[in-house]
């Protein structure tokens, strides 16, 4: 079922921390199906359960073929929906990368966000199997963005010196 996506930086639903999944049940698999159905028409590369109003620690990542370059994780296949349950970053790399991010919950808003270029992660897949390893490139980026959603963090929280445009000023 296609679900509606919560939007807005001050939306309480998006700002609430999600709970770990105790067991991969039928309900969890149903939620995974809903997330897959929702992300296609929405046109995103990632979706977190709280974005459709479910406070469970589950994310969906889809790497489009055109972006599939060096994602650093062999379980990551282009254009395939990947469900990660209870995903956790276990190590952040020292190098920082800047990348332009957007979010289905903050439509029409993009910003350069600096995050570690590489991370190591653990998670469960849809069948409840433990997966994980190193993530680089776009995969590392989406992983960090989506896990933030599970903690009520939106990408605009990472944008420094964010100000409203002053109509009386001239900007370069
Ligand atoms: Zn997002």
Describe the fold and architecture.
With 172 residues, this protein is of the alpha+beta class. The chain has one domain (26-164): Peptide Deformylase, CATH 3.90.45. 18% of the residues lie in helices and 26% in strands. It has two helices and seven strands. A five-stranded antiparallel sheet has the order 1-2-3-6-7. The chain is globular, with a radius of gyration of 16 Å.
If helices are DSSP runs of H or I spanning 4 or more residues, what is the number of helices?
2
Please tell me how large the radius of gyration is: 16 Å
How many discrete domains? 1
CATH superfamily: Peptide deformylase
Mean pLDDT: 92
In angstroms, what separates the terminal alpha carbons? 45 Å
Query: How would a textbook summarize the main sheet?
Result: 5 strands, antiparallel
Cα shape: globular
**What is the tally of beta strands?**
7
Structural class: alpha+beta
Describe the protein's topology:
Elements lengths: L25 H17 L3 E3 L9 E5 L18 E12 L3 E6 L9 E6 L2 E6 L5 E6 L1 H14 L22
This protein binds zinc ion.
The site of zinc ion has 5 residues, from α2.
Give a quick rundown of the structure.
The protein is of the alpha+beta class.
Descriptive key words:
two-stranded antiparallel ribbon; 2 helices; Peptide Deformylase; globular; 5-stranded antiparallel beta sheet; alpha+beta; binds zinc ion; 7 strands; 172 residues
């Amino acid at each position: 079922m296609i679900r509606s996506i919560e939007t807005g930086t001050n939306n309480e639903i998006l700002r609430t921390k999600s709970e770990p999944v105790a067991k991969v049940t039928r309900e969890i698999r149903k939620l995974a199906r809903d997330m897959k159905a929702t992300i296609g028409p929405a046109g995103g590369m990632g979706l977190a359960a709280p974005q459709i109003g479910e406070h469970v620690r589950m994310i969906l990542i889809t790497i489009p073929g055109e972006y599939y370059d060096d994602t650093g994780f062999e379980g990551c296949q282009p254009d395939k929906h990947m469900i990660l349950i209870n995903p956790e970053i276990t190590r952040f790399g020292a190098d920082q990368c800047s990348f332009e991010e957007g979010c289905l919950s903050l439509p029409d808003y993009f910003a350069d966000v600096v995050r570690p270029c590489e991370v190591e992660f653990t998670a469960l897949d849809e069948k409840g199997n433990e997966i994980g390893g190193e993530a680089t490139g776009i995969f590392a980026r989406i992983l960090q963005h989506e896990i933030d959603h599970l903690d009520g963090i939106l990408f605009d929280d990472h944008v420094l010196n964010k100000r409203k445009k002053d109509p009386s000023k001239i900007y370069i």
